[in-house]
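Quick question, first post here. What does this chain look like in 3D?
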Amino acid sequence: MTKPTVFVLDDSPPILLTLRELFADEGWEVVATDAWAEVSSGIFARKGCPLVLVCDLNMPGIRGEDYCATVRRYRPDVRIVIFSGDSMAQEAARRLAAPCVSKSAGPEAILAAVRQAVG
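> Answer (accepted):
Ran it through. Tokens below.
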């Protein structure tokens, strides 16, 4: 099986660093950034390997829910996990049919959600 790639889109440098290390320790390729254009180019360029997008909902310049909906529309094979401290995150996750992990839940919760998404 091809190694999964996990894209992390968040505007918090400490969260990006933590998740990059957490997912890399699983042996996954990780792209962690606050730049949605970088994530987009990576998602749309990669074919043939499992892709997971871990996305915050509150990003400067873009609504995370809208971004995830666009990814889902053009790349339905990308598995999406919402990772947010937003009070409306559960509702957004329901609309996207994606799991949601609260940022306050800790690293094991997001790791478990991404492991499940990777399959």
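DSSP finds five helices and seven strands in the chain.
The longest strand covers residues 79-84.
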